[in-house]
Design goal:
The protein is an alpha/beta fold and 238 residues long. It has helices at residues 25-34, 66-80, 104-129, 153-173, 191-196, 208-219, and strands at 14-18, 38-43, 56-60, 85-88, 136-140, 179-185, 230-233.
Length: 238
């Protein structure tokens, strides 16, 4: 399924995409560029040359830290004077151990990548976005946030807490015209997932382009009525 996105649907909008050169982030960044937006792509390591567009700006930052998240948002405001859309695709996965077997380092990593990065980005971005009158926040969660399984306790818990943060942001900022939603994809068809699960049926997985087009739709005026939602996108894995 694809959502109809016009070539200039996001013209004039300033969009910050975290994890912009990741497995999903590349599709999201390209989708917004194709829709006419100016995109600030943020990642730990990212180059201007990664996207051949005059409306793309690369910013290197570690958004799982308070200072890194603030520096990313400050870079947007310093250059463009405002922030219209925040798309948070940063995240990580660890599994294969029961809760009793999970080491402190793995648990902390899941909190840092999936929960803390979301909190720090919201805290940094929301004050600027409240000034626009129609800001959009979209984050990438996981089906595991609402449908946990054995062996992924730390991952599932961090994503569930992330959903709570996004829904809270929706409640706290609806007075300023901001919407905040989280997408809950099943297994996504990325190179990393194919390498990790080479014998899986890839046809059942979620296409990154589908998620990217949904994100752009939510960021448009057409998505104005969707707020505080946790949206399942499960592909053929229903």
């Amino acid at each position: 399924m694809q959502w109809e996105i016009g070539a200039q649907a996001m013209k004039g909008k300033i969009v910050l995409v975290t994890g912009a050169n990741g497995g999903l982030g590349r599709f999201v960044t390209r989708a917004f560029l194709d829709a006419g937006a100016t995109v600030v792509g943020v990642a730990r390591k990212i180059q201007q040359s990664e996207f051949s567009s005059s409306t793309f700006v690369a910013v290197a930052a570690e958004v799982a830290t308070p200072a890194g998240a603030r520096s990313a948002v400050d870079a947007v405001i310093a250059r463009f004077g405002r922030l219209d859309v925040l798309v948070h695709t940063v995240g990580g996965f660890a599994g294969g151990q029961t809760i009793a077997e999970t080491e402190d380092t793995v648990y902390q990593q899941m909190l840092d990548l999936n929960l803390h990065s979301t909190f720090y980005m919201l805290r940094a971005a929301v004050p600027a976005m409240r000034k626009t009158g129609n800001g959009r926040i979209v984050a990438i969660g996981s089906r595991a946030a609402v449908d946990p399984g054995a062996g992924v306790g730390a991952y599932s818990a961090s994503k569930a807490a992330m959903v709570s943060l996004i829904r809270t942001a929706a409640l706290e900022n609806k007075d300023a015209g901001i919407t905040a939603n989280v997408i809950l994809p099943g297994t996504m068809d990325t190179p990393a997932n194919r390498a990790a699960m080479p014998n899986a049926d890839f046809s059942q997985w979620v296409l990154p382009a589908t998620v990217a087009s949904l994100i752009v739709w939510l960021a448009r005026d057409a998505g104005n009525a969707v707020n505080g939602a946790a949206i399942p996108v499960y592909g053929g894995q229903v």
